[in-house]
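Supplementary notes for students who missed Thursday's class. We covered one full example, reproduced here. Read the sequence, then the structure, then the short commentary at the end.
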Amino acid sequence: MEGLQRCFVLHSRPYSETSLILDVFSESHGRVSIMAKGARGKRSPLKGALQPFTPLLMKWSGRGEMRTLRHAEAIGLAIPLSGNALFSGFYLNEILSRVVEQETSYHQLFFDYVTALTELAQHANPEPALRRFELALLDSLGYGIDFLNCAGSGEPVDERMTYIFREQLGFVASLMKSNNLVFTGSDLMALSSRQFSTADQLKAAKRFTRLALKPYLGSKPLKSRELFSLRTRKLT
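Structure (token representation):
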């Protein structure tokens, strides 16, 4: 069918007695708000399909901020996420909803998102997949940071040295050793390659992405983090 787009539902909320308002991430149009009329009805074929992490083909019509769903079909089973991986998937959906502009194409980021969900489903530790996706998101937002060269001298980063992060500038060589803004050269090389071979590199990557994403996310707490923290407390 002409006009079909590959999509994932990021979030949905009830509207009227039988409809849904969907926040959708599509391959070609980025984030789109869509009204799915009758989708919650007892006889609706869409009742179980419009769920997060299910790959869909969708078509919509209309203008303005709210479009109207014309067709939707699942093109595969939902990516199987459970436990920490499920909460991590909700986190990805939430930051996309908070950061990505509507009706703006993020073609590469769409595939980065699919890759991240697949990695979450396949690996027990969700942290590497989360950090790689956050870095991909920053790239898509135009947040260009040179991890491999000192912003002060232009010299290549030395894995044995330490560097302090300066917002809107980059990483500058520093004699400081313990500070939330200080990273080792080894940390920066791992961030550049998006491959984290040690627990320290993963911790440093999380520290950096939180710093870099903060201006985009704002001060409002992330619901997915609150839910994960609540789950962790219940398990302990």
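Commentary. Strands lie at 5-15, 19-26, 30-36, 56-61, 66-74, 162-166, 170-174, 182-184. The two ends are 50 Å apart (CA to CA). If anything here is unclear, bring it to office hours.
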